[in-house]
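User: I've been trying to design a sequence by hand for this structure and keep getting stuck. Would you show me what you'd pick, starting by listing the structure so we're on the same page?

Assistant: Good idea, let's start from the same input. This is the structure you sent:
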């Protein structure tokens, strides 16, 4: 085929590819723009609707109080009109009086020997109506008759008066009522005027979100808006049966405002729960009621009020229609352009064929010089001859440049990379880090240094050999890279052995900790080696430039110190460097020597913190806690010397002292008690490094101390469960089969997966004290403790709360049926003598 024909063909093909790419790009961009516009529109609608809902709630409460005060004024007027004895009053008189004072109805309530009933009323449904099963309403009536202020915590309380919250009338569920109740001791009945329907609902009908929702639905694309009650949505209706009537309470309705015509209950229920759980928008596309729609659920979390979800149904067919219209316009335009290009290319090809013939002759002369022909093309046109000669001239140079470039790349790679993992080496860091430091000095930004060291890697090398250890290191390097974006402001280097250093530029300490924790969590996942599944951990230390030093080498040292602090805490942790860490490392050798001597001389004490059944007020057990009072250092915190013991191997003899002492002591106490006490002992991760030996030693100590295994409990942290190795699970199962209870200590602060806790041999969960101490007098911050209690119940586990210090914390836990507690509200940790006195002061 001649050039004259090839050029038009190539031009048309090129233009076709360009148009295809352009149309694809515009289609994708248009779709993205439409979806972004839709998201902004949804955001605007959600803000407006949630604003209206909040204002409606605030306004409704305000109006409710006004109505309550109006009812009190009406009560005073009614009292002036009526005799003090209800026997002297007729129902017709109350009907006339209701019209006179401007209320819907008036009912008089009087006491019977075992009830409070409606004895006179302008509403026939209220006569002889029992209130005994009305819960806090009935409590409020009794307090009014006792002439004491109403303290049920609902409605509005004024002198001699209480107004209940707006509710559906139990006597007639077709009505919404607002009740008032007045009693000052001058009558033998409670005066009960109330408003019905119009007066109660007037505010919400005029100013509520209903009109706003209707307005948005009239707009193009919005098919439906709903304000959803996540507590009741998708569940069986909470029907109340009272006074012969059945109805659903206002607060229990699944849809508070708007409608729910586009029903997909199962899927919508799941997304509503996810929206509340994740606090993030949830959406999906589906075809319902003959339309292609997009459903969006947005969670709203008002201050001091129940969360709710706003559901929006958008006509996704409009977006698809717009995209089809735009695509058709681009296709038609492309056809026109292709026709024009085809015509122009024919004209252009004729204008260049003659110059190409001249160029071929010139290049041919050069090609026939000192250059050897290497390219053989089976082409008979001028362009083929030109290509053949140019390739023959450039072949050697191209080959030379290629070889030189490859050699240069290989040398540079070997100079700046670790040969095993392919990560950057220290030489590269020293050369490339300077510009980042200069920029940080100019902008005031931070540079984060992460020092990572693998936990238990030495055992892998010893067990499988260094070649297998190298395979693990390669996997570790890849996992670290997977946790980080491909960014030229991130430097990953292998320091040597199983140590890695990461430099992050322009992120703060919070973001740095998030990145570090993501890496640690990724590295503690299982590794497959020779068909076996092994588990490693990673300890990470963090230092910041320029907060802690402006010298990079010093920052690396600080990060290294922080990393060792993480190892002392059991590994699988991220620790940020502080002066406290530096100081603790300075006095560590002396402290270690003193601890070793204290263990040898058995100068370690065991304290006992009582475990209380708060419902019955009885003591049912204690937790054994280790204490060390040194002659040189004074009282040494367990948070300081336990990590040293774990790091130096002293944790095993220290644990044996605690366990033997605690078991012997509790066994001795139980001989004198009718109800036996149980004792719980904390087990560290070190005890589970040799699970079989640990199980054997526990059996021996229990036998020596003559303590029934059913009175012994093991407390472990969630970090031990992360390994989830077959040996650990088997050892726990063995202990549980003996009658020993297994408890998860500090539950909620670790990283355990709830999905596999149900498969592990566990008897109880201990709620970490930080969650209990966050509960305030207003019962805020109760979500996590309540969730843990419910989770424990779902798995049929026992649950105990530690760190209980306030009466209101105790009352909250009792309200959730969590009766087992420990904390300073009951007792601090006590030595042996103090604990014996404590047992004498409390019920057995």
């Amino acid at each position: 085929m001649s050039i004259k024909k090839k050029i038009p063909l190539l031009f048309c093909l090129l233009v076709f590819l360009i148009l295809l790419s352009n149309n694809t790009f515009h289609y994708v961009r248009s779709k993205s723009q439409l979806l972004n516009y839709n998201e902004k529109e949804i955001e605007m609608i959600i803000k407006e609707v949630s604003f209206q809902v909040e204002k409606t709630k605030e306004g409704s409460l305000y109006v409710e109080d006004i109505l309550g005060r109006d009812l009190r004024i009406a009560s005073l007027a009614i009292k002036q009109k009526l005799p003090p004895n209800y026997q002297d009053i007729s129902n017709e008189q109350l009907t006339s009086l209701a019209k006179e004072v401007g209320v819907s109805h008036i009912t008089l309530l009087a006491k019977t020997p075992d009830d409070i009933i409606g004895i006179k009323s302008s509403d026939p449904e209220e006569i002889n109506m029992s209130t005994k099963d009305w819960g806090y309403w009935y409590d409020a009536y009794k307090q009014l008759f006792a002439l004491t202020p109403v303290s049920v915590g609902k409605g509005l309380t004024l002198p001699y008066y209480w107004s209940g919250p707006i509710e559906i009338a139990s006597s007639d569920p077709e009505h919404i009522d607002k009740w008032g109740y007045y009693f000052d001791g001058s009558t033998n009945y409670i005066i009960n005027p109330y408003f019905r329907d119009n007066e109660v609902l007037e505010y919400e009908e005029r100013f509520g979100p209903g009109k706003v929702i209707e307005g948005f639905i009239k707009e193009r694309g919005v098919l439906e808006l709903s304000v959803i009650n996540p507590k009741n949505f998708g569940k069986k209706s909470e029907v109340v049966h009272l006074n012969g009537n059945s109805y659903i309470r206002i607060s229990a309705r699944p849809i508070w405002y708007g409608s729910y015509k586009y029903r997909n209950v199962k899927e919508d229920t799941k997304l509503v729960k996810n929206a509340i759980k994740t606090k993030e928008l949830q959406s999906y596309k589906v075809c319902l009621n003959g339309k292609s729609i997009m459903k969006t659920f947005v969670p709203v979390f008002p201050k001091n009020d129940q969360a709710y979800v706003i559901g929006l149904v958008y006509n996704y067919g409009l977006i698809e229609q717009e995209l089809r219209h735009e695509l058709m316009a681009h296709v038609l335009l492309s056809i026109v352009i292709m026709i024009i290009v085809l015509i122009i290319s024919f004209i252009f090809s004729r204008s260049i064929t003659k110059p190409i013939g001249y160029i071929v002759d010139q290049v041919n002369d050069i090609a026939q010089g000192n250059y050897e022909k290497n390219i053989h093309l089976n082409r008979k046109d001028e362009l083929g001859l030109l290509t053949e000669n140019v390739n023959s001239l450039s072949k050697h140079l191209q080959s030379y440049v290629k070889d030189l470039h490859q050699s240069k790349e290989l040398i540079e790679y070997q100079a700046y990379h670790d040969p095993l993992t392919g990560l950057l080496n220290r030489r590269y860091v020293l050369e490339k880090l300077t510009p980042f430091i200069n920029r940080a000095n100019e902008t005031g930004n931070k540079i984060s240094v992460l020092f990572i060291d693998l936990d238990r890697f030495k055992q892998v090398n010893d067990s499988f050999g260094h070649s297998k250890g190298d395979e693990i290191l390669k996997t570790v390097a890849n996992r670290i890279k997977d946790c980080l974006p491909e960014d030229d402001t991130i430097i990953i280097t292998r320091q040597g052995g199983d140590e890695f250093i990461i430099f992050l530029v322009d992120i703060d300490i919070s973001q740095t900790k998030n990145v570090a924790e993501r890496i640690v969590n990724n590295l503690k996942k299982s590794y497959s080696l020779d068909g076996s599944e092994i588990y490693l951990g990673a300890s990470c230390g963090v230092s910041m430039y320029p907060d802690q030093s402006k010298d990079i080498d010093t920052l690396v040292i600080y990060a290294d110190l922080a990393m060792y602090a993480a190892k002392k805490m059991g590994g699988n942790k991220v620790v940020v460097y502080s002066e406290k860490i530096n100081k603790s490392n300075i006095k560590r050798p002396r402290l270690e020597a003193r601890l070793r001597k204290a263990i040898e001389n058995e100068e370690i004490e065991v304290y006992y913190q009582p475990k209380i059944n708060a419902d019955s007020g009885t003591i049912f057990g204690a937790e054994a806690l280790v204490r060390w009072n040194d002659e040189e250092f004074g009282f040494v915190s367990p948070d300081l010397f336990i990590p040293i013991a774990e790091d130096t191997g002293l944790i095993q003899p220290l644990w044996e002292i605690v366990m033997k002492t605690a078991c012997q002591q509790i066994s001795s106490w139980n001989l004198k008690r009718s109800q036996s006490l149980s004792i719980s002992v904390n087990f560290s991760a070190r005890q589970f490094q040799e699970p079989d030996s640990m199980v054997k030693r526990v059996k021996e100590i229990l036998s020596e101390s003559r303590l029934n295994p059913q009175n012994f409990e093991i407390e472990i942290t969630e970090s031990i469960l992360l390994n989830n190795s077959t040996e650990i699970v088997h050892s726990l199962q063995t202990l549980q089969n003996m009658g020993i209870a297994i408890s998860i200590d500090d539950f909620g602060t670790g990283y355990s997966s709830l999905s596999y806790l149900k498969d592990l041999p566990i008897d109880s969960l201990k709620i970490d004290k930080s969650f209990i101490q966050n509960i305030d007098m207003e019962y805020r911050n109760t979500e996590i403790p309540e969730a843990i209690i419910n989770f424990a119940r779902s798995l049929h586990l026992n649950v105990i709360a530690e760190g209980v210090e306030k009466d209101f914390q105790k009352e909250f836990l009792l309200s959730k049926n969590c009766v087992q507690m420990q904390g300073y509200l009951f007792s601090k940790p006590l030595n042996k003598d103090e604990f014996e006195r404590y047992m004498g002061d409390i019920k057995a």
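That's my pick for every position. To get oriented when you compare it with your attempt: The two ends are 106 Å apart (CA to CA). The chain has five domains: 82-202, 204-319, 368-416, 426-577, 606-770+798-841.
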